[in-house]
Amino acid sequence: MTAGIDTGDTAWVMMATALVLLMTPALGLFYAGLVRSKNTLNTFMMCLGAIAVAMVTWALVGYSFAFDAGNGIIGGFGHALLSGVTLEPRAGQTIPHLLFFAFQATFCIITTALVCGAVVERMRFGAFLIFAALWSVLVYAVLAHWVFGGGWLQAGGALDFAGGVPVEIASGFSALAAAIVVGPRRDWGRQAFLPHNAMFVLLGAGLLWFGWFGFNGGSALAANRTGVLAFVNTLLCPACTLAVWFVLDLLRTKRITAIGAATAVIVGCVAITPAAGYLSPGWAMALGVVAALPSYAVIVLRPRWRVDETLDVLAAHGTAGLVGLLFIGLVAQIGWNGVSDGLLYGNADQLLWQALAVAGAVAYAFVVTFALLKALGALMPLRVSPSDEAIGLDVISHGEEAYATGEGALLVLQSESASAA
């Protein structure tokens, strides 16, 4: 055994890394079930594409920008091309540095994939891949440095256990910016766009919850007491959100919907992400209750907006992540986390730093994503043509159909014949 390496911790983080990687194809299932059948494959492929581009950019420069010393805003190039990332432990850790790199890579991957939920069914696949590669470096890696890599928020005292800033707020508010720039789907607001496969959505949500035990529990980077706390809180918080969501659905529609239940699981998992290792189990349950309310409200109100943020990334991730971050500042207990108390336990400064983390992350993610897509849009078309959108992006982008009816291929032939004539 290499000096400083704990084999138990290493085994757990290896398992957690695999669990978090599983979350990206699980997200593909979740998203694919929510879109129309003609866009099933394309939606899943956007998530799969995120694995390719984000993994490569993370190895090239993303990891270095996030975890090299650098300055308070961004890391340097000290770990570019995995320089210095070896089998020896990183300072203060009991796992190989190379494993820490891999674990963090899976976070970058799924966060990049999350953003596609705002632009599915109309964004060009190639344009999304280019955007994803740039976004993973310019947005995700920078925000990860702020809270995990020695950046200004971490140095000031902001707490983020497993990614409220770089994962949840970044994806939610980047999704809002992306939806504004790319624009709404054809006929959005004039016809109902219904999920085509609720079972995909439920299966995806279940696999995401399963993977989240690695996401949060693994963020302790050790098989220790903090890891156990995060693991159990990841069980409790989403269960409470799910129970409250049932009540909200019954009060509003007199039915408990499957899509609502799946969404509730995600909202609860997101809310506990930044707080998993900082809250007592009782407060984790309370967070599950509280987080359901604003996220549910955003989903209900979204159809009244003029922004087609297609799969509610803002509600499920941005809003719930924001609530989780602020909740730390209110009820964190040093007796449970060994780090800091919140406002209710005599430490108002913690709430201030949590609020600064929220404000800084919201502003940075929205502005940089908006500017990035505007710049890309000046160089290439971001979305498919109206006729291609009507046909569906499965056939147009991939030459395949999720359900082999042949209708998509026939529509392509008819379109090509009409164009030739």
TrEMBL record:
Keyword Membrane tagged: yes
Keywords attached to this entry: Ammonia transport, Membrane, Transmembrane, Transmembrane helix, Transport
Topology within the bilayer: Multi-pass membrane protein
Protein name stated in the entry: Unannotated protein
Q: What's a Pfam family this protein contains?
A: Ammonium_transp
Q: Which Gene3D superfamilies match?
A: Ammonium transporter AmtB like domains
Q: Which GO terms describe its molecular function?
A: ammonium channel activity
Q: Which residues form the Ammonium transporter AmtB-like domain?
A: 11-403
Entry's family note: Belongs to the ammonia transporter channel (TC 1.A.11.2) family.
Kindly list the places in or outside the cell where this protein is found, as annotated in its UniProt entry.
Membrane
Q: What are the GO cellular component annotations?
A: plasma membrane
- Residue ranges spanning the membrane: these are 12-32, 44-66, 98-120, 127-149, 161-182, 194-215, 227-248, 255-276, 282-301, 313-336, 351-373
